[in-house]
Amino acid sequence: MTTTSQPVGTGVASTVVAPVAAPRPEARDEGRRPRWQRVLFVLALVGAAVIFLLPFVWLVSASLRPREYVFAPGLLPTPFAPDNYADAWQAMPLLTWLFNSVVVGVAAAAAATLSSAWVAFGFAYFRFPGRNLLFGLVLATMMLPFAVTMIPTYLIWNRLGLIDTQVPLWAGNLFGSAFYIFLLRQFFLSLPREYFEAARVDGASYPQLFWKMAFPLIRPALLVAFVFEFKASWTDLVKPLIYLRNEQLYTLPRGLKVILDRFGYGGEQQWEIVLAGSVIATVPMIILFFLAQRHFVEGIATTGRKG
Amino acid sequence: MATTVTPPVPGRRRRTPLARREARWAYVFLAPWIVGFLVFTAGPMIASLWLSFTEYDVINAPRWSGLDNYRQLVSDPQVARSLGNTVYYAALHVPLVMLISLGLALLLKRVGRWQGFFRTVFYLPVMTPAVAVGILFLLLLNTQDGLINRGLALLGIDGPSWTTDPDWVMPGIVLMSLWSLGSTVIIYLAALQNVPRDLYEAADLDGAGAWARFRHVTLPMISGSLFFTLIVNTIASLQMFTEVYTMYFGNRQTQGSFNSDAASFYVIHLFREAFQFLHMGFASAMAWLLFLIILIITAVQVKLSSRFVYYEGEDR
């Protein structure tokens, strides 16, 4: 399912939306260009790709070298020291952090996806007084810097006695999130209304319309919301910094920061452990991207979401 | 036993019972968002506005202090420093991200079968957790042994002390931020692929050269996306936190050293005031100043861009 044929709310969004896997006739023009232009084009493209890949190559390679060779010239992991990973694994509770990140990420993503879909269906299906105003308010909340609500939100969780638990890391997502409400509403709007009205005539309730009909039909869009929020949760440092004290509760980014402070910069200079930890925190995201590449690209092209 | 149908209430607008029933259900669907908005957005906004006029350290009750926080805000050299740094960063980061992303998107558009591969290459840094990006660039930017200065040395350039020279800390951070521009590339690529081909064909018939095609067809047709990314990237860059906090803050050895001053960003300073020094009132005032700055900058951008942004008509 693509979003190209849907009515889109704003002019900005409508120029952003495009079929991502469209055929590219431009590519066929290449043959007609002068040779020096084609050479230049390939050089620029491959050069840019190499520059973007080099930091990854260095990261992986340096994480596989012994301590005194971490900063050695060259991009090959020689001498080869895969033991760094075992050392990192032993130095810090990486497995616990990995597990915490998965649990928090799934909770955050499931909460955001389900609640946003429920709310988005409300905006897409029903006609009621004040709808456009409320939807405008949803979009307006995206502009608000998180710093404005950060302190009172902390005080709320503090009052509830939930500081130093993982609850504040995901529970705020139970109330819908503007990006996903916007995204999912687009998809709900593309479903033919008559289809739902027929089900109404047959006696289906509104929650049944949502759960039995609309929800399964927009599964690709739900996956977009899920993978985006999972990634956002996986990479977030701010909330764990504010809410978590107990190291056993840390998610990976928070743990990685501890590793950096303890073993790296200004610490014991055991950079090989810091680098191995960085690779361990990154690899699941790379795997997620390759599993859900289509959803990421579609989500960005549709909502213009920043990473 | 009253069995009659309730007569329509005079004075109320004519709404069928069905429509009213539907409206009731609509609010059932919107309820989570409305509750969340009140509890986690509107309520906290009011609370933080109120806190900004108080002194509050979480332990003792807030004490009203009038405009004290705001007076301190405008005279505090550290706030001025962090705000100056943040604006300097945004002024470098946003135009560079837009230019380089557009260049990469134009390259990608011309790629045939390998487009997916190169798109992935440019997007993978976005998937890298921000803490890992901070760590990685702390090492890549290392003066003696970092990959970046090694690369510059190959070109015969003596690289600067990116992480320790106060004048070079910010350019180093901008360099790091450019690695993660993949989402902007994908937005531009989508916009470029959406430009109708017949426009280029018409331009060719008029004898337009490559530059004229770009200037008079491509640019106007993607101006909506350029505008959108200008706004989004500006707002995000004014709130830079994680990568820089990872590199220069939150650790006894680096705290208070000169490079952490050169790398002080507004939101980092705010965060430390709030959660390290427990100056919750002062930090709230900082947050509202940031909000005001973002609103003004966005309003100016919207105003200035309205002359350059071209929207396709309703015929879509």
Write up what this structure looks like.
The complex is a heterodimer of chains A (307) and B (316). Chain A contains 16 helices and no strands. Chain A is mainly alpha-helical. Chain A folds into two domains: 25-81, no CATH class; 84-303, MetI-like (MetI-like fold), CATH 1.10.3720. The model of chain B is unreliable at 1-12 (pLDDT under 50).
Helix proportion of chain B: 55-70%
How does the overall form of chain A come out from the CA principal axes?
Answer: globular
Range of strand content of chain A: under 5%
Beta strand count of chain A: 0
Biggest sheet details of chain A: none
What is the rounded distance between the termini of chain B?
58 Å
CATH architectural category of the largest domain in chain A: Orthogonal Bundle
The chain pair forming the largest interface, with residue counts per chain, is: A-B, 107 and 116 residues
Poorly predicted runs of chain A are 1-23
Spans of at least 5 consecutive residues with low confidence of chain B: 1-12
Strand order of the largest sheet of chain B: 1-2
The succession of helices and strands of chain A, N to C, reads: HHHHHHHHHHHHHHHH
Counting helices, strands and paired strands, the structural category of chain B is mainly alpha
